[in-house]
Amino acid sequence: MSTKKLGGPCVKLGDHINSDVIIPGRYLTSIDPAELATHAFEPLGKEFQERLLKAKVVVAGKNFGCGSAREQAASCLIGAGIEAVVAESFARVFFRNAINTGLVVVQSSEAVAAIEDGDDVEVDVGSGQIHVNGRSFSFPSYPKSLTHIVEAGGLMPYVAQKLEREAAQR
Amino acid sequence: MSVTAKTFAQKALERGSGVSDLKPGMIVDVAPDVYMSHTASWRCIKTFEKLKGATILHPERIAMVMDHISPAPTAQVAGYHRLCRDFARKHGLVNFFDVNAGIAHLVLMEKGLVRPGEILIGTDSHSTIYGALGSFGTGVGFSELTAAWVTGTLWMLVPESMKINLDGRLSKGVYPKDIMLKLIGDLTADGATYYSLEFEGSLTASLSISERMTLCNLAMELGTKNAYVRPDEKTYEYLARAGVKDPARNALLPDAGAQYAKVLDIDISALEPQIACPHVVDNVKPISAVAGTKVDQVFIGSCANAKYDDLVEAADILKGKRIADSVRLLVTPGSRETMKQAADNGILSTLIDAGALITNPGCGACAGDGGAMDKGEVTISTANRNFRGRMGSYDAEIYLASPATAAASAIAGVITDPREMMR
Predict the structure, then answer these.
(1) Is residue B423's pLDDT more than 50?
(2) Cys-Cys crosslink for A79: which of A33, B136, B173, B351, Cβ 3.0 to 4.6 Å?
(3) Which residue of A has its CA nearest to B386?
(4) CB spacing of B368 vs A26 below 8 angstroms
(5) Rounded to two decimals, what is the model's pTM?
């Protein structure tokens, strides 16, 4: 995963996009990313939802994912085929949930300012660069101590691998 | 001033991780003392059951509370509740609380599971409320809560700390809810993202435990990781009543001279009642800016403001009055204990006589369970979130205010300054 290039067309949103807008509480009766994806961003209307399903990247302003601790706010985006979220900043629990579900989330105010809605955005996790319209922007890499989770593709895959290793040693 | 002076967060995470000299920005594995999961427990159980060879390390640290979407409104949800019940029985969970208990946060505090200096993780963002008892409470996703069941640990970033000194006196008709709304409006919804927020000052010290809960609960709406009020005699009395033996055992106090990224000094004596307008919590105005706005529904509930004294605050205004014919008033006591105390002391009678519908304790309409609105309708709520679509239609509006403001608005049928109805 660390050398992977992700991306494609983006949808761009503003500041403080909250968890209830990303996935309304009434749909938390599911934990299936594909099913959740059909309701992602429902409060923003059908047209936006259709664009989301064609997009590969979500671009947003400050405090993306604020509000509830619902992990489905991250997993519904994975279900919708989103490969990365580029934002000026993330809310705390959303950031955790993204790391833990294997959704790539990167921060760059400069990139967000340069990206127009619908642009093709490429996120190169290996080099720590965002490429858009012939310009490149760097983003800070994940803390080193989280590498093991990110490389496993999320927290539960990491825990599963750990359990397997422990079982093999017995 | 000592160079080793530490904040509450540094001390709590050092205790939880066994690593000394933690600095903000470091990431450590900590061993939480309590893992709270609400109705989301079913998601944890399904995640757990997919893990081959996994066992529950500390069943006694698990607390499950069926508070959201309860009692079950559909067969699907009934299945989820049953999954949790069966799991609790199978694994011998001593801290399983069923649909009659109330909101997880309040239940855990009433049952003595929240103790100073200890670390609690919860599948609910408002787990910051545990700071009201000097605990380190923080919200997590369901996968990481499940991981804690299995591994006993969870990664945490050592946060920067912010200190807010609250001084002055609350004037009549003004409550901790108003303090927090004003703060959220001023600092905005990411004003304290990833911070550990310590409330200090003479006003904070003068507040009841219930009022401190409102502070720490709403701190989440600033983006905080956790909140904190230093434990004192009031805290220890509360804990003793909750059955906690030796409640000061693990208590942690920040050192004088500890490093804060921000310190705010706020005198709240001139504060007026505040209100958060649709559709974000930081869209805050003094009540005069929207007084007169018609409301269809009033909701008194949630982990922010449905504790016993919140119900008393509303009842004091509603006593001997009737709500407007155009309004429905929903009162959802925070917990069974709250409901019983309110019943024993005549508070429920006062509310019912005024025209309130009393529902079962739990999250209720705040979590979209009952109390939905049609498009174009307006609710004034004592909860902590007013996001679009949270209570029914995406084209309905939610305002957030204190129980007193909610009660006054129920009588008038329009948003009303509670001071106009106080004798």
Answers:
(1) yes
(2) A33
(3) A20
(4) yes
(5) 0.97
